[in-house]
Amino acid sequence: MAFTIEVEEWVGSVWHRFITRRASPDFPEASVALESMHRPLSVLFRAMGGASGIGVEAANARDLMLRRNLLQQVAGTCKQLPVAWCDASNLRLPQSLAVYPEVSLNQDLYRWLALLAAQAGEMRHWARDNQRWTQAILERFPAMRPRYERLVEAHLQLRPDPDTLPRAESALERAICQALREPGSVTQFPRSEVAPWPLPMWLYPAENLGVPQATELAEEDPDNNLQAPPVERKGMRKRAKRVEDSTSKGGLMLFRLENLFSWSEHVELDRQGDDSENEDASRVAEDLDEIAMSRQRMRKGGGLKLHLDLPPTDVDDIPLGEGVKLPEWDYRKQRMQEDFVSLQMMLPRGSEPLGLPLRLSPLARKLRRQFEHLRNDRQWLRSQPQGSELDMQAWLDFHVERQHGQCAERGLFMEQRQNRRDLACLLLADLSMSTDAHLDDEHKVIDVITDSLLLFGEALSAVGDEFALYGFSSLRRQQVRMQELKSFKQRYGDDTRGRIQALKPGYYTRMGAAIRQATELLGRCKQRRKLLLLVTDGKPNDLDLYEGRYGVEDTRQAVMEARRHGLLPFCITIDQEAGDYLPYMFGANGYTLIKEPQQLPFRLPQLYKQLTQP
Q1: Does the first or last residue of the chain, that is N or C, have fewer Cβ atoms within 10 Å of its Cβ?
Q2: What is the side-by-side order of every strand in the sheet holding 55-59?
Q3: 596/81: higher pLDDT
């Protein structure tokens, strides 16, 4: 019996592979993955005019009402096919392209879609807009026409024969073929109840990637701080639909009372989510094309409501004074929202004066010796009327001018004087929940950040520069939390060391608000040079709209505000994907990537030394 079942399973798997391979319209041997072309496509998209805040990510397959042949119906394929689309926040390209039988054609198709997305605007009519954008590209870049025609001719050979289609579908197919050959020549498209075969060279209408339950919950309960669990697969977002949760219509459950060994009180608690992560659920979610979500609707007064996001007051960090209101930039409205964010300064609870950990003492001594030389560093002043040595460059200039009869008074000596470092620095550390991740079996990201702050403080206290240390995290715009580790007025000592060693991972990363508050604190300093350092392990994000382009644009605006106030913002990150977004926020020379996070404690003081050289 078992042997029969195994044979049936083997035959079924062989049949499935055979029928799906025969029914597939793709060419797997010529497949090109988006990941292999991600970086050049991003550069091409932005170079051709695409918005810098838009990331190039993978698009999931979309349901299309196509006319499938008999083989495809038997195999159950071609119900969903990947298409490209773009809106104000996303550029989504198929995760892989195997449309053409040649690898070079599939690569050119990726490049063409990036060009088309950079040219695209708001879509009003799918076919007419794609023709207009295509026509604009070919007029602006005539050298693209041979490649475009090559893609079109190769694609037309793969499209269904209009003579084999019903009248309405045949007329629509002929119009589409004409629009591909001569963009802009077709203005009216026949109607058809069946969608045409996908056009890989055109952009499709944008797909709503918002989480449906998040919008409804926000309208129903503005204090709700729960978020849908993240999908682990990079760049892929799932379609979601709302379904009714009716537990009262469940089936009959039978059980034997002798199997009930214990009894406990049951409280029906509607949390609409779970704080714990389920790895099995994440793996299952990757395989689903559509995720259905439900919630148990309860009357406002009919349940027990608990706040499970923030710790109780007696164990939470200690607030310092009243909170402050900060603005936030909304790129969609292109305006600043005044008093939009609430920020609270805090002290880490449970901190007590501590010395430097013994494991850091050797490196701290080495750094102090290096930075003490900066305090005693002397600088040569040229073209002085008197000094200890002759200035050969000034003497040569004087000699040349005298030969031409244009002798001007100038100093011919050099004098060495004490170098006065007139600068202040504020270091802002990202303390979001992602810092709780492990780097290896023994160290977490928060451990590396803690060591970096300790060694940074040791180095700057040796050189004598004015500096301050802060950490930040957030939980929506109402809860931006900034830990004060050392202010400009405080002395670096065991109190500061204790606060640093008491740090714990926080919540999310509302980077713009933290930078604005740091700008305000650093702007009060009287020093001529002011350096704002940001240490982070990821991009801006929060539970509300701060995810994606919104957070990137607000952070970029905060950095620009800091520069207008005379500050030098600089970001140090350990995120290996930082090249996709940090150049847009901080500029090409405004950040650095530490490829080995364990090197951050040593690299951070060295970067400060380079940035503050006269």
Answers
A1: N
A2: 55-59, 90-94, 84-86, 203-204
A3: 596
The pLDDT tens digits for 490-546 are 999 999 999 999 999 999 999 999 999 999 999 999 988 999 999 999 899 998 889
Q: Terminal CA-to-CA distance of the chain, rounded, Å?
A: 83
Number of other residues whose CB lies within 10 A of the CB of residue 156: 12
Q: Which residues pair with 573 in a beta bridge?
A: 536, 593
The pLDDT of residue 226 is 35
Both tokens of 288, joined, read 């689903």
- Concatenate the DSSP letters of all residues of 534-587 into one string: EEESS--B-SSTTSTHHHHHHHHHHHHHHHHTT-EEEEEE--TTGGGTHHHHH-
> How far apart, in whole angstroms, are the C-alpha atoms of residue 480 and residue 540?
13
Q: What is the pLDDT of residues 247-268, one digit of tens each?
A: 555 555 555 555 555 444 444 4
Query: What percent of the residues of the chain are helix, what percent strand, and what percent coil, each to the nearest 5?
Result: 40, 20, 40
Rounded CA separation 299/283 (Å): 34
What pLDDT, on the 0 to 100 scale, is given for residue 284? 58
Token pair of 122, please? Answer: 């708001």
Q: Any idea how long the chain is?
A: 614
Q: Which amino acid is located at 206 in the chain?
A: A
What are phi and psi for residue 569, nearest 5 degrees? -80, 140
CA neighbor of 535 nearest in space, from 481, 487, 592: 592
Classify the C-alpha dihedral 229-232-237-238 as positive or negative: negative
CATH number of this structure's domain 342-371+422-611: 3.40.50.410
3 state SS for 11-67:
HHHHHHHHHHHHHCCCCHHHCEEHHHHHHHHHHHHHHCCCCCCCEEEEECCEECCCC
Long-range contacts of 457-460, Cβ-Cβ distance < 8 Å, separation of 24 or more: 457/486, 457/492, 457/496, 457/497, 457/500, 458/356, 458/364, 458/367, 458/368, 459/367, 459/368, 459/370, 459/371, 459/605, 459/608, 460/371, 460/425, 460/492, 460/605, 460/608
Amino acid at 18: F
Please, which pLDDT band fits residue 120 given cuts at 50, 70 and 90?
confident
- The mean pLDDT value of the chain amounts to 78
Which residues, in sequence order, are CB contacts of 68 under 8 Å at separation 6+? 77, 78, 79
Q: What is the 3-state secondary structure (H, E, C) of 89-155?
A: CEEEEECEECCCCCHHHHHHHHHHHHHHHHHCCCCCCHHHHHHHHHHHHHHHCHHHHHHHHHHHHHH
Tell me which H or E stretch contains 514.
Answer: helix 511-523
Nearest residue to 488 via CA among 430, 527, 534: 527
pLDDT given at position 15: 58
Torsion of CA 340, 345, 348, 352, to 10 degrees: 180
Tokens of 69: 């042949």
Residue boundaries of the structural domains of the chain: 22-204, 342-371+422-611, 379-418
Q: What is the CA 78 to chain-centroid distance, rounded?
A: 32
Structural contact between residues 214 and 222, judged by C-beta atoms closer than 8 angstroms: no
- DSSP letter for 321, please: S
Reported confidence tier of residue 224, pLDDT bands at 50, 70, 90? very low
Judged by DSSP in three states, 177 sits in: helix
